[in-house]
Design a protein that fits this description.
Blueprint lengths: L2 E5 L4 H12 L2 H4 L2 E5 L3 H18 L4 E5 L2 H5 L4 E4 L5 H14 L11 H25 L5 E4 L4 H11 L4 E3 L3 H13 L7 E7 L2 E9 L2 E2 L1 H10 L7 H10 L7 H7 L7 H7 L10 H22 L14 H10 L3 E8 L12 E9 L2 E4 L7 H23 L2 H9 L2 H6 L2 H14 L9
Parallel strand pairs: 1-2, 1-4, 2-3, 4-5, 5-6
Antiparallel strand pairs: 7-8, 8-9, 10-11, 11-12
Helix pairs in contact: 1-3, 1-14, 5-6, 5-18, 6-7, 6-15, 7-15, 8-9, 10-11, 15-16, 16-18
């Protein structure tokens, strides 16, 4: 029997979606799903929801819930990781302290001070999971990682362990749907090649059969009425020639061009995911307040589950592809082993991959266009120093990583960055004992 373990299962909305995606494949219903979270209340909610699904749909699935990580990982074939170490308390420090020094972030989970400190909190837990897996999970058990910062987490995992893993995001899928809408072509008729790094991959090709759809997309975005949102991403498309895979709010943090001046953000930014200061934290606080209400609504919903409504998330399809030996193509975050030739070997790249019964098989891409590689490199330099800092527990390297961050150094001088980083270490010390 296949065993699928969720680490950080307490997220009601996301866990529910992944669970229903998995159960949408009849061949996967006769499996064990182990739910693990350190928050007992949230764990109890998702467990009750799973028991409701089981009883309502008469499923053969065996569900178990535990706060014991090793118990959850015992005999696991697949380990889905969705953790946020430090929760909203730490996220508030990630955003508020840099803002005090004069720099802003919208999300703060991928790069910059927010992303680096989130990574420093997360990687000891990820390495602990890997250690447990080597002792108690099935040989070759696969990590399906959703925890951000994706690139740094996967890079460090591949540097420090030999546990099979792949990082999953939905930026490629959502952007592909958006581009198909602009081209007025059904997504099922579109094919594309997207490659780069997580949250900054590039649509190198977007086609319907032999037809290049980029001209239609350019006409829509550059010649039609201006769109009210996503202006930063559209501006970078205008300047580079390639559309990127992440929202304007995310993207504004990975570049030195926009957040540094209010006038620029007034012109290109916006509210919410278009670049609003501290938006991710505000959204998360609001979502947390609604969790109990959402849970009660889900629990009382007696309608039959429409398993045909599978989400765009790759996770369930990868598991299905491996279990049934049905090849599945997706974009995954993997170690660069010459896959993208003008990005460093060993870094984490997001490239087309295939899943089948023998595992995950990344595809060779070759060279990115020079401007795409250069912008990726500006982020990879930060990621590489941060990974080395985490694995060697070298606090000085943390200063250097954040000093090299494009958004941070567009706002602050080196001595200001050092003061900011020191204050973040002090505020977050309970999650970072390795740096004391």
């Amino acid at each position: 029997m296949v065993k699928i373990t969720f680490i950080g299962a307490g997220s009601i909305v996301f866990s529910k979606q992944l669970l229903l995606d998995i159960l949408s494949f009849e061949v996967l219903r006769d499996c064990t799903i182990s739910l693990m979270d350190i928050d007992e209340k949230r764990l109890e909610r998702i467990d009750k929801l799973c028991q409701k699904f089981k009883n309502q749909e008469n499923l053969p699935t065996k569900f178990e819930a535990t706060t014991d990580r090793r118990k959850a990982l015992k005999d696991a074939d697949f380990v889905i990781i969705m953790i946020q170490v430090g929760g909203l308390e730490a996220t508030k420090f990630d955003l508020d302290i840099p803002q005090k020094y004069g720099m802003t972030q919208c999300i703060g989970d991928t790069l910059g001070p927010g992303g680096v400190f989130r990574f420093l909190r997360t990687i000891p837990v990820l390495l602990g999971i890997c250690s447990d897996m080597k002792e108690v999970s099935k040989p070759g058990a696969l990590i399906l990682n959703y925890a951000n910062p994706m690139a740094m987490n996967c890079w460090a995992l591949n540097e420090a362990t030999d546990v099979p893993n792949v990082g999953l995001c939905h930026g490629v899928q959502h952007t592909a749907y958006l581009m198909s809408h602009w081209a007025k072509v059904p997504i099922k008729e579109c094919t594309y090649l997207a490659a780069g790094i997580n949250h900054m991959a590039w649509f190198l090709e977007f086609r319907r059969n032999e037809e290049d759809l980029y001209p239609k997309i350019r006409k829509k975005l550059f010649e039609g009425p201006p769109l009210a949102n996503d202006k930063i991403r559209i501006e970078m498309f205008r300047q580079t020639g390639y559309y990127m895979t992440e929202s304007s709010g995310h993207l504004s943090e990975y570049l030195p061009f926009f957040r540094k001046r209010k006038g620029l953000m007034d012109k290109f930014g916006g509210t919410g995911f278009d670049g609003e200061d501290n938006f991710y934290y505000k959204l998360s606080v609001a979502a947390e307040k609604q969790e109990e209400k959402i849970f009660k609504r889900m629990l009382s919903d007696k309608r039959k589950i429409k398993f045909s409504r599978r989400s765009v998330e790759y996770c369930s399809r990868i598991i299905h592809g491996i279990v049934t030996d049905t090849p599945f193509r997706f974009n995954g975050n993997v170690r660069n082993t010459g896959l993208i030739t003008n990005l460093p070997d060993g870094c984490c790249v997001e490239v087309p991959c295939y899943a089948d019964s023998t595992g995950i098989h990344p595809s060779y891409v070759g060279e990115l266009p020079p401007v795409c590689a250069a912008l990726n490199m500006s982020n990879i330099l930060v990621q590489g120093i941060a990974v080395k800092a985490a694995l060697t527990k070298n606090r000085e390297l943390v200063h250097h990583a954040i000093m090299m961050d494009p958004n941070t150094n567009s706002f602050l001088a080196p001595h200001e960055i050092r003061a900011m980083v020191n204050e973040m270490f002090q505020a977050e010390s309970k999650w970072l004992p390795q740096f004391l």
